[in-house]
Amino acid sequence: MWVGMVIGTLVATPKDESLIGFKLLFVQPKKFYQKQIRTPVVAVDTIGAGTGETVLVVEGSSARHLIGKPQGAVDAAIIGIINNIELNKYLLEE
Amino acid sequence: MWVGMVIGTLVATPKDESLIGFKLLFVQPKKFYQKQIRTPVVAVDTIGAGTGETVLVVEGSSARHLIGKPQGAVDAAIIGIINNIELNKYLLEE
Amino acid sequence: MWVGMVIGTLVATPKDESLIGFKLLFVQPKKFYQKQIRTPVVAVDTIGAGTGETVLVVEGSSARHLIGKPQGAVDAAIIGIINNIELNKYLLEE
Amino acid sequence: MWVGMVIGTLVATPKDESLIGFKLLFVQPKKFYQKQIRTPVVAVDTIGAGTGETVLVVEGSSARHLIGKPQGAVDAAIIGIINNIELNKYLLEE
Amino acid sequence: MWVGMVIGTLVATPKDESLIGFKLLFVQPKKFYQKQIRTPVVAVDTIGAGTGETVLVVEGSSARHLIGKPQGAVDAAIIGIINNIELNKYLLEE
């Protein structure tokens, strides 16, 4: 899983019917100590997240299974809202 | 999922029979605020998209399940046409 | 899926028995308008492709399902030979 | 699988119920002889690892299957604590 | 699949019980004509490979299925020892 910030929303019409009723959010992966930003990912919100919140994202087939639709058109989902991160910076490689 | 623009089409003969009847489109992932362009992906169109449209793409096993063929030779599918994107640029990391 | 050129062949002995009877080809992903070349991938040929041909490659669990062996040791397969690509260059981001 | 160091912890509320009872750890992939650091990954701990330990991480659907929940919201898991690595540096490409 | 060289071994205790009895090897992906080296991957050996050998590696859910354990903690496996590679260098993009 990875940590990112919800930076926006997206509306698609038409869209696959498995997505109907789900909110689609743009999530920018957090850079931490890296130099390059990464591309925002579109994730299904399963937890009630909103713009500006730091969230936990799962990718791949686990995201599809999560929405309970075996044919679901989903490969990324928000599965948590993050309250606290504790990193030991002395352990980071440079 | 990710957002891209349909930039072209592709014809393959022979091709795996699971692909027969599906349109194959080139989709260029949108860069947003990144520096590098990314390689176009070949996606199956399940929604009726055309060149010049901004679309939502799902990858991996979810794309295969979507076309309803358990043995389908598919790892990317267009699942929506995007009407509107709202990004809060102030939330972006630089 | 992605587009590449068959640039060579590979012989492995011993190899997993699910691969016996399949041809293994090196496929170089096409760069299009990118600067960096990408590493050649080893793909199972399911279509009768040969060196010098431009092919369509599927990756992940879809490639395994394709060869009809649930325990198959495969994560990339050639699923089509490409005759024609039409790209609208004016739509490309730079 | 890949090798990394546990560099911290993370608390998420609310979170998907499949994660309840599991510890979420930040793992920094080890660079070895590379120049760029990679982004820390959030992995479920299945082995009892702690900050400062070098661990083995599995990704993708294998991580989900590991926690024994077919609908689990998991795509990365710590599956071992590493005691010893022996690399033959003369075999490395530069 | 991809081609790499076995550059070392790894011992993990404790480790997930699905790994017991399997040898874990570090495999460095071969660069071919690329500039950047890639990070070594930890793969389960299913074929009897050793340090210094050039091997074929499969990733993802195919690697898990290969060891015959539906809950196996595996996302990469060595599936062949490579005897011969024939590349047509004139077909490479630069």
TrEMBL record, chains A, B, C, D, E:
User: What UniProt keywords are attached to this protein's entry?
Assistant: Bacterial microcompartment, Carboxysome
Q: Report the protein name in the record.
A: Ethanolamine utilization protein EutN
**Record flagged with keyword Repeat:** no
Q: Which PROSITE patterns match?
A: BMV
Where does this protein reside within or beyond the cell? Carboxysome
Please name the CDD domains in this protein's record: EutN_CcmL (cd01614)
Identify the taxonomic lineage of the organism of origin: Bacteria, Bacillati, Bacillota, Clostridia, Eubacteriales
Record organism: Desulfosporosinus fructosivorans
Cellular-component GO terms for this entry: carboxysome
